[in-house]
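User: I'm new to structure prediction. If I give you an amino acid sequence, what do you actually give back? Let's try with this one:
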Amino acid sequence: MENHSFGALNYIMLLVYLFAIMMVGVYFAKRQKSTEDYFKASGRIPGWAAGISVFATTLSSITFMSIPAKAYTSDWTFLIGQYMAIAVLPIVFIYYIPFFRRLNLTSAYEYLEKRFDVRMRLFSSISFMLFHIGRIAIIIYLTALTLIPFIDINPLFIVFLIGVLCIVYTFMGGIEGVIWTDVIQGVMLSVAAIAIFVMICFNVDGGLGEIYNLTASADKFFPAENFSWSWTESHVPVLIIGFLFASLQQFTASQDVVQRYIVTESIEETKKALVMNAKLVAIVPVFFFGVGAALYAYYSQNPQLLPEDFNTGGILPFFVISQMPAGVAGIIIAAIFAASQSSISSSLNSISACFTSDVYERFGENKPATKILFVARSVTVIAGVMGVLASIYLIYSNESELWDTFNSLIGLMGGPMTGLFMLGIFIKKANANSALVGVVASVISVLFVQSFTDLNFFFYGVIGTLVVVIVGYLTAPLFKSKLTESKLDNLTM
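Assistant: Good question. You get back a string of structure tokens that encode the predicted 3D arrangement of the chain. For your 493 residues, that looks like this:
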């Protein structure tokens, strides 16, 4: 399949977007006087903006392209899982936000030291940092890999546009720059999804009604067999359970989301942020799945437009480049870049917050504020460069399986991290040693299940979380807590 010429107008639209994003970083650079500004924005972020930022952070370019591909080749079953991010909000509102706001934490994992000990803090913080460096590499790599077959842009140039420029504006603007670029990128993602869907509707003979009829006749909405229970397949009950725990991990134990709880001026604004995120989650994914259904209808009517042996994983960028007008295609590709950069910039700032708070400030003598800010910015660059170099390695070596395996092992720490926060907040008798036993048991359990069973991967997070809580609770009487009753009252429900 020959690459399509990207065209001067599309290049112009893409570069205009990238220039605008850079200018946001430049604008907020002058406000970054301390780590309070760099990681917390000194509480200057309105709730609605923080909410859009949460949405953009959790939606990467891979999601932007893979959801339409999923709906195109399969069905809409995974849409149900998206709404679990809304289902967990009452728990987050009632229990977690007050904790993080009251303790005024820079890193979420500071709580784990206050509640347990420094071992739990370092375990969770280092797991988060390693996972997100891998995540940066994989997002850049898969985005470039998906775009390379369709546009005549050198892979290194794609990596530069996505990764290096993202490092620069995150370095300059701190969390404030990250959040306001997230707002731009979140709006672009949402508008792009709606615009693509509307445009395809106008190109399908019979319009929206025919899209519905073709999708329904192929049983591509919610097939009845997908509602049955399965231990190995991603059916509806498994998706509900798996996404529920994945959402708990994101909203209660992942620094990139938890950090948004402390950038607003009050708990009320923080709750507004999550309500805004819930509204976007309720609406926008429907259009992503709708795009997949519309593409299915369009290429069912025009099968000659698809090359032979076409990899349907790239169906969205293929349609954008081959069928959309010049200029419009450039804006849509810019939205794909935006999806990458919103996730990467959040990861970079969160990695920096974790290292600065959990490692650099935690150990050794007191450091001056200027030096702490210098280290914070340096870590942003170092983490970004590591991710970019890893993505370049993956592009040219084609050894994605090795990296995916590594990333999978690090990602398995998400369950134990979620379990640690649950154990600490809800089980008063739990202590540092029982938490350690719970984490060890959790990691062993998940690795065993992954290696020796066919259990669906959605259960990994469930097992990882529950084993920490159950084992931590059962072994608590074997160890003595070092915390006084008054401190426990402040750190538990």
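You can read the tokens as a compact description of the fold. Here is one thing that stands out. The mean pLDDT is 88.
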